[in-house]
User: Fold this.
Amino acid sequence: MDIIYQVLKVLGSLGLFLYGMTLLSESLQKVAGDKMRSILASMTSNSFKRVLTGLFITAIIQSSSATTVMVVSFVNAGLLSLAQSVGVIMGANIGTTVTAWIISLLGFKADISALSIPLIGVGFTFMMMKSGKRKSIGELLIGFALLFLGLNFLKSSVPDLRQTPEVLEFLKEWTSFGFFSVLIFVFIGTLLTIILQSSSATMALTLVMSSYGWIPFEMAAAMVLGENIGTTITANIAAAVANVSARRAALAHTVFNLFGIVWVLIVFNPILRLVAMLTVSIGAGDPFVDASSTLYGISFLHTLFNLTNTLILVWFTPQIVKFVTYMIKAPKTEEVFRLQYIQGGILSTAELSLSQAKQEIVSFARLAQKQYEYVRQAVHDSDKSNFDELYSKLEHYEQITDRIELEIARYLNSISEGEISEESGKRIQAMYTIISEIESVGDSGYNIARILQRKNVYKCKFDEEMTKKIDHMLDLIDNAFRHMIYNLEQGYTNIKNINNAEDAENSINEYRNHLKEEHLLNLENNIYNYQTGVFYMDLIGECEKVGDYIINVSEAIIEIQ
Assistant:
């Protein structure tokens, strides 16, 4: 029973540490989340900035897993390219070493746990306040307190080896197989990190075990290497339901860590001797001899591993991208979207920033136009599996247009916060209208897909004549798209009128009215049944709405004048 109680104490202490780490990480993301996301989206113009961005964010939010999951979600949303994500992930690996140093320098030498209860009291006071930010600060303080309280309990839960030498004897059996023992402890580190879903928790456990003499320095170092494999699992889990680019970003994280572990294992003994020299050079003991000095030895190893690995691989980012692209091939149906012009953040002047926004909006309009190519295919394709694939694409496009509208709107918000002229203010207001109308075009594309899906559920079919007329309506919409994009490219300074867009809109309205009158006659003459006619006119009506959204874009441009 004593052994069971001891194991449960260790698990409970680890759970408290892990909960504190989670609370600390989540609250930090709440307090500084928008700024973190803004930095992540903007500071990625070159490899050096990408690495620094990943390092900085991970050091702040104390979780490389949170950073890599954020990176995967940004890649999935199209806000970061694959190459950019690789650099940020490299930096995140360096940033996660901060946790080991905090635990080594504060968690063992200074009794911070003595401040834990007062900190929880202060944190609880903050959590009683109405302000959301102050509540998050309260969570941050409580998370910090619980982290060190858990670490303190973890240290006291470890049995005294002088009283229970059989524990050490058990572990000695696993450490007497030479290099094979190193591989065993690499596996143990990997497994523990996968189970706990936190390399920080596994690192804390490793530090406690080594500082209390449970395992020698070599085995603790092997566990640290294993933790670097295990921490990639979180990003891969997050990417499992994401698009191909996000899965590639997660695989790049795995490739980065695996490569590092392979070269470190090849030169394992020389690396450990170098780490021992560094530890002795700062005034600590030899980690091979002094168990209390393994804290610094492990922290040095963790930092050296990630820093050296980054310095080597940052020059091979294009090759890593090629490798993961080869390993995870995009299916023919995969569509990859990302912002192309405003991902670098706000420029020095509002005028330059608005020019970037204009280019991004033109790109957004072209994306919306492409959606209607799939609408046309969906109208024609009666095969269920093909239609289901097209339906998924149209749904995906609708989600993408929502996301792009939101990101452009955020960018415009950032511009409007600065010093802008009255004219720039008008342009920003027009751009808000334009992106809203283009997003509505995306919604209509998905609405058409839903109409066609309901038609298929009721086993209704459009005859050849109806399909031909829908095609003609889609031709008119395509013509309206072309004029809209032309007007967007010209901009308010070069455009004199929007007669082209108005003519295109009138053509759509006139054809819709013609089809409406014809529809009533066809019902009277039983050309097609009523249910089929409902789906047919719903589709035509949705197409007419698209024409309205498109003309609204050109009207917003001309209204700036």
In short: The mean pLDDT is 79. Residues 2-327 form one domain.
